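User: Sequence in, structure out. Go.
Assistant: Echoing your sequence, followed by the structure tokens.
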Amino acid sequence: MIEFAKVLLYNEIREERSFPPLSAKWCQDDFKMVVKTAFKKQIIVVRLILTTIFL
């Protein structure tokens, strides 16, 4: 479920910016960069994903 949320978040942001395609293995630094971008542009999406993770 958490991996699915990460992929959703990554793909949604990648549409706006030129991120490389999502690889099978997640890199922690990539995720941090994606989250930083998300906090700037898509706070609601991040809030939903964090809620999903901590439920």
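User: And one key feature?
Assistant: The helical segments are 2-16, 28-41, 43-54.
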